[in-house]
UniProtKB/TrEMBL annotation:
Catalytic activities: malonyl-[ACP] + acetyl-CoA + H(+) = 3-oxobutanoyl-[ACP] + CO2 + CoA
Protein name per UniProt: Beta-ketoacyl-[acyl-carrier-protein] synthase III
Domain (Beta-ketoacyl-[acyl-carrier-protein] synthase III N-terminal) ranges: 109-190
Main location: cytoplasm
UniProt feature coiled coil, ranges: none
Length: 336
């Protein structure tokens, strides 16, 4: 049986830095509150009029990953694109990447699993490689939140958290079964779908004609809604469970973790997990301070930065874990 291995990583974030002080000019918030509750100091938001879109940023990250993998774009057999903020309502951004990279007629899959999107994407790619169907799969997580946030005091519980950015990985076939993606674990609990959601426009809620007809400036359904404390409580439980599930499947304990890359939801969530698994600061990678929560992009950005900084070495056990809207959650256990 084949195994799959990450052979290239890349990320891209817009240049435009938005600090907590910048946000306090738009809404009733302050640097101390944001840092204390979330750990975030600043985030990147695309500048209005910038060429960057979710797919364009995904392409920029992908080009770096492809080059580092040492493959040609035409060696890619499948594109998997995870996002909650696509350029268009349809089609999804996978085909835009295919066009921008000028990759023949390979398949393009769009993943809609929010903060868990990259792990879901990685899992899909892993299955295609393990079954022998494909040799190289491009997995992208990319988001633009800044264009869709409520930047008034009404939206402050959500809008201070999210940032824009993109990350990408090339997953390639290997016959060395001691290395690569050892296992992935996916879960969801639709009962809580509306605890963290953007409900309009939606065919089940309010579609464009309804919105235009009502033309109601107080309509909050265009903005993400989050029951922050409920999300937090579920996140710490599910993160812990799914990390343990991954470790146990591979007959490993928490002491085997060389590097944990948690989805960058909130520094307090990462610190809770770190404490629970008795990990040192060197064993957990966080960059939420600089980028905020970039949902599907957060893990590939963090994984790329950790690798670029030499924090992931050959033979390391690397654990990826995410939790988010859906609720969805997942983990991946990787032997580097
Ligand atoms: N600046 C200042 N005050 C703010 C604020 C902001 N940006 N956002 C909310 N507040 C206020 C609230 O209005 C509330 O005021 P009140 O007590 O007068 O009503 C107070 O701060 C506490 O709000 P609360 O929502 O209870 O804060 P919290 O401690 O739960 O922190 C989150 C809010 C969002 C940071 C926290 O719940 C969280 O991180 N949840 C998980 C989020 C997450 O991970 N989401 C992504 C999942 S992938």
């Amino acid at each position: 049986m084949y195994n799959s291995k990450i052979t290239g990583l890349g990320y891209y974030v817009p240049d435009n830095v938005v600090t907590n002080d910048d946000l306090s000019k738009l809404m009733d918030t302050n640097d101390a509150w944001i840092q204390e509750r979330t750990g975030i100091k600043e985030r990147r938001w695309v500048k209005p009029g910038s060429e960057d879109t979710t797919s364009v940023m995904g392409v920029k990250a992908a080009k770096v990953a492809i080059e580092r993998a040492g493959i040609d774009k035409d060696d890619i057999d499948l594109i998997v694109f995870a996002t909650l903020s696509p350029d268009f309502y349809f089609p999804g951004p996978g085909v835009q990447v295919q066009k921008a990279l000028d990759i023949k007629t390979v398949g393009a899959i769009d993943i809609r699993n929010q903060c868990s999107g990259f792990i879901y994407g990685l899992s899909v790619a892993d299955q295609f490689i393990k079954t022998g169907m494909y040799k190289n799969v491009l997995v992208i997580g990319s988001e633009i939140h800044s264009k869709g946030l409520d930047l008034t005091t009404r939206g402050r519980g959500v809008s201070v958290i999210f940032g824009d950015g993109a990350g990408a990985a090339i997953l390639s076939r290997t016959e060395d079964n001691s290395k690569g993606i050892l296992s992935t674990h996916l879960h969801s609990e639709g009962e809580h779908a509306e605890e963290l959601a953007l409900t309009a426009p939606g065919m089940g809620t309010r579609w464009v004609n309804d919105i235009l007809k009502d033309n109601d400036p107080n309509d909050e359904s265009y903005y993400p809604h989050m029951n922050g404390q409920f999300v937090f409580k579920n996140a710490v439980v599910r993160f812990s469970e799914v990390i343990m599930e991954g470790l146990s499947t591979n007959k490993l304990g928490p002491d085997a973790i060389d590097m944990l890359i948690p989805h960058q939801a909130n520094l307090r969530i990462s610190q809770f997990i770190q404490k629970k698994f008795k990990l040192t600061d060197d064993q957990v990678f966080n960059n939420i301070m600089k980028y905020g929560n970039t949902t599907a992009a957060s893990i590939p950005i963090a994984l790329t930065e950790a690798w670029e900084q030499g924090k992931i070495k050959e033979g390391d056990t690397v654990v990826l874990a995410a939790f988010g809207s859906g609720f969805t959650w997942g983990s991946a256990i990787i032997k580097w």
